[in-house]
Amino acid sequence: MPALQVLTLNCHMGFDLFGRRFVLHELRDAVRSVSADLVFLQEVMGENALHKQRHARWPDAPQYAFLADALWPHSAYGRNAVYPHGHHGNALLSKFAIRSHVNRDVSIRGHEERGLLHAQLEVEGDVLHAICVHLGLLESHRREQLRLLAEVVAHEVPADAPLIVAGDFNDWRARGHRLVAATGLREVFEQAHGRLARTFPVRLPLLPVDRIYVRNLQAHAPTVLSSRPWTHLSDHAPLCVEVRW
């Protein structure tokens, strides 16, 4: 049976917890050390002309391509926020071929831009669906965004297809958790430990904002990466888990 190591991380635009130090090169080393087959990234920059002028080590490639390097030959990017000097969004890095991908705009007009990046991957003859999520800060916005996520799952993912939904849900009170569970998705930390993982803020994780949900997959050994070097590479602690068919 195929087994995949899955990692999800809010990249914080390549800056440390306080947003002062540019740490993308260190972040790349840390992500590579996990040896994940599939990486879900949120708040990853596609382009930023201002930061490129200010930081000598700013890469010429988009951040997701710089992180992928030669280890993940396949990637997909969903542009969520666009501004005069650049853009950022969600990304998927994969060791398996990405057959197709689409980015769903779930932004609430007049507020922060958010998206659902939905990709179909070819894994040893099967099609794996992967949805990278970054939801809003207000509960009313998240409720609407989760409704849209449920529509994508219901209408675009076959009921018997393996599915992973991961990312930054910003749902620290877990009030939207039942809306996700109603789609048949199961959260891997809740399954293993009886509660959601605490990931924010990274140096003293108190809030369960990041999640990994699966359907038609078995999850093993979910882990919160909340020690060095991760405590100095973002404001969120990453999550990883092994999944099997």
Verbal overview:
The protein has 245 residues and is α+β, with helices and mostly antiparallel strands. Helix content is 21%, strand content 38%. The protein has six helices and twelve strands. It has helices at residues 24-34, 49-54, 63-68, 139-156, 177-181, 188-193; strands at 3-10, 38-48, 74-83, 86-94, 97-105, 115-123, 126-134, 163-168, 186-187, 210-215, 218-224, 239-244. The strands form two sheets. A six-stranded mixed β-sheet has the order 3-4-2-1-12-11. The protein has a six-stranded mixed β-sheet with strand order 5-6-7-8-10-9. A hairpin with a 2-residue loop joins strand 6 (115-123) and strand 7. The longest helix has 18 residues, at 139-156. The N and C termini lie close together (6 Å).
